[in-house]
Amino acid sequence: MPIENVPRHKAVTRFFGNVFGPYRLAAAMAALTLSIAPVHAADISVTGVVWQPDNDTIDINGTWDQIGVHQLLIQWSAVDNTAFIAGANIPTAPKLPNWKRIAAQPWARQVILGLAGRFDENAARNNLEELTVLSARLAKLPTPLNVVGWYFPVEIDPTWVDAKRLVPLLATLPRPLWISVYDSANVGPDDLAKWLATWLPDDVGVFFQDGVGVYARQAPVAVEYLNALDKRLGKRRVRVIAEAFRPKVGGGFRPATVEELLPQLSAYEGRKIYLFDGPHYVSDAMVDDLKQLLKK
After folding, report:
1. How far is residue 268 CA from its own chain's centroid?
2. How far apart are alpha carbons 233 and 204 in whole angstroms?
């Protein structure tokens, strides 16, 4: 069963499709013309890279450890009922990742293992029970990875009116457990954080998708979201996904340039930063350029 090749985060289309709302247009235009601001590059360190497994990146490789990366966040270990790990009692991908080789990489010394997801967000939200049952099964499978946490890849935003359905289902999954959150509707930092605090279990952490890659907001505004989440949930439960891509003229997405990415990283200084995503958008050449700046 072939895996759909998706050379970008599924959130990209979702974000970009809604980005040009009333005040998001101003943010988009500002981001398009934003010149690189002074940054203290030597203070920047990246904790992790995200990997969304697909056919194109099944042999994942990179030099991300050279900019501090030591943790790999794998978006999913099964998607659309096809597994990337043997033994899940569902069909496996045509080619499985070499988990032993990945476990030996310096950028994967620690792994947050994504569980069961769907490419289509609505399908994922409509099949939560099925996905959590499969996720619990996947979490028990042996791998050579140093798994330090698990990620449930059904993404959350405030337009999901019955997101609270997740509460009893998340209780069936192992800890430490993480989910991801975005705000394409731009309800604002305080309202998003307040809403999450009313229902998200206290022992579940949040990866906040910054929205910078699709011009939903600039990094300083993303920091306001992170600060609001810190206040409501506690800083230990909050990490940031820095979108390392930008829209391409004519459609689709391209890797961000170093000049575009560096202000993002600088804004999140002192936080646990994860680049989305490593294999598709953060090349060895970009790592070399970032590394040179980090030495200054």
Report:
1. 15
2. 10
Beta-strand ranges (E) seen in 152-259 are: 177-181, 204-209, 238-243, 245-247, 253-255
Alpha carbon of 12 to those of 113, 131, 192, 214, 281: distances in Å?
21, 22, 20, 7, 13
CATH of the domain at 170: 3.20.20
Angle of helix 189-197 relative to helix 219-233, nearest 10 degrees? 30
- 3-state DSSP call for residue 116? strand
Instruction: Classify residue 2: in a domain, yes or no.
Output: no
Q: For residue 163, what are the contacts with CB-CB under 8 A and spacing of at least 6?
A: 156, 199
Q: Distance between CA 9 and CA 245 in Å, rounded?
A: 10
Amino acid code (one letter) for 260: E
Distance CA 175, CA 238 (A): 15
What is the per-residue pLDDT across 149-181, written as a single tens digit (0 to 9) for each? 999 999 999 999 999 999 999 999 999 999 999
For residue 118, being part of any structural domain is answered with yes
Q: What percentage of residues in the chain have a pLDDT greater than 90? A: 82
pTM (2 d.p.):
0.89
**Is 276 inside any structural domain?**
yes
